[in-house]
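Why do we care about 3D structure at all? Because function follows from shape, and shape follows, mostly, from sequence. That is the central idea of this module. The next example makes it concrete: a single protein chain, its amino acid sequence, and then its structure expressed as tokens.
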Amino acid sequence: MGNILSLHQLTEEQEKQVRAAAPGCELIIGKAQELGAEQIRQAEVILGWSKHIAEEALHPNSKLKWIQTWSAGIDKLPLTELEKRNILLTNTSGVHAIPITEQIFGMLLSHTRYLQQAALLQRQKTWQPPEGQLTELRGKTLLITGVGEIGRETARLAQAFGMRVIGVRRSGKEAPHVEHMYTNEQLHDALGAADIVVNILPFTEETRHFFDEKAFAAMRKGAFFINVGRGGTVHTDALVRSLEQQHIAFAGLDVFEEEPLPASHPLWSLDHVLITPHIAGDTDHYAERAVDIFVTNLKAYTAKQELPLNLVSYSAQY
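And the structure:
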């Protein structure tokens, strides 16, 4: 087996885990911009990905056979070229389930319990109770679009809050804690049944602008919308119009079609919008979980077995 190249720093213990999973292999750790062309071309396995190594990693003389990304999203990789070369691709799906689920409920509670507005008023030393009646999550119907690892954890926690959970999944396959699963083709029916819509979809050609003008119109008036999936799955102008018309009562947004979100964008000035800078998946446990996935796959790869975790389908693009 050839070299293993990690674009991410590993702890001493993590280095030991990688070396134990692939005895005799040379492990090279370095920043993409600092690696030499030959180091990249000689790598059979790459942990992580960067546009800075793409040219050499895909060089005709490259030995690359498998990429384990450091992210769940793979839409920024040259998928067509990787598929053509039969390069295995695995991602870190599942690493984000806990932090993103906590982010979702943090966003929801910031609105339902007046926390976002109270934090702003605190800076002004202003004692100002809300004008309207506060509400609860209990008893509300939560719709999850894209019920994977994150969606399952979100559904579990939603049930603990006493919420009814429904989902939209390409396959329509049932999932734990989800009362009813719709297919993508039944999206508008599902949207009309939900008080809160949580988008966790990956970005593919099929999901581009999945949430468009018609989708937002299908949502209940006064519904909440949370996007922690991918920015490109939402038609931003359609979302803005729905918010400006008060059809959507609140939006918690962590991802956007254009990042960073331009300072001139109208989303910044809407009081019923909470914006976070694509941080929902961040956690101090990230590297630990990502390396666990890699090491499990590396053991199988070294034994010439099928990779057991997170093997990406090029046709599905996730």
